[in-house]
Amino acid sequence: MANIRNGDFRRVWFITGASRGIGALIAEAALADGNAVVAAGRNVKAIVERLGDSDALLPVALDVTDEAQAKVAVQQALDTFGRIDVLVNNAGFGLLGAVEESADKDIRRMYDTNVFGLLNVTRAVLPTMRASRSGHVINISSIGGYRGSAGFGVYSSTKFAVEGITEALHTELSPLGIHATVVEPGYFRTDFLDASSMLVAADVIDDYDATSGAVRRRAAQMNHNQPGDPVKLAAAMLKLVDAPTPPLRLPLGTDTLAAIAAKNAFVTQETETWKALSASTDFPK
């Protein structure tokens, strides 16, 4: 039975992975900005402890890998607030290790959350956005979603998938009045490099010591010393949603901007070098 909460809310946000880290900071920023927030996570108690008690807040239990649970959580949001204006697919975790070092069970678990979980929640939310011909789907990717790197190859592949999904959503949803944006944070000072958010491959192969091994060591040194300010990231989400014409991609952090510029330059140079062979494979005209 519907129980629409009274309140002149600017928007209703649905945020996954909202109990800690970037998800909790985005939820706090959205609440402070006069929005209602559906804060979704596996541990509802942790959500309440972090975000408090408010008529503008609805904590919901959600393991994004459970499609049925995603539908229930979305229905709870609609029963409580009547609509969902912004979806932030934030839930996810990382895997640090060379591609060959990465275990099948860890890879599959990560894909279940980072890719299939995102799809579960998105499919559950889109019917209400389509009905209202409005809304904004925000998928949290990574600097690794634009360029792969040693040590984060399999993790990057999940974020490459998120980038491709969002590009398609942008084209499919735009005629329906719904925006889609993929956000690409660089290294922000959160607990992402902690064991709570990052698996480290148990297998270590000496041949990768100079590449993926070096990244493992740098990650340990960088933990809690990252250049990005997560509070500013959360504030940027508010500006993104307020924009009349949101971008398809939003890189966040000077490290991401540098990585994008370097990859674009590399692709341009390599494409030019191999252009003759690339063009030679068409049928003659």
Question: Could you walk me through the main structural features you see in this protein, from its secondary elements to its overall organization?
Answer:
The protein has 285 residues and is α/β, with parallel strands linked by helices. It has one domain: Rossmann fold. Helix content is 48%, strand content 15%. It has 9 helices and 9 strands. The chain has a 7-stranded parallel sheet, with helices on both faces. β2, α2 and β3 form a beta-alpha-beta unit. α3 runs parallel beside α4 and α4 packs parallel to α5. The longest helix is centred in the middle third of the chain and has 29 residues. It is globular, with a radius of gyration of 20 Å. The termini are far apart. The mean pLDDT is 92.
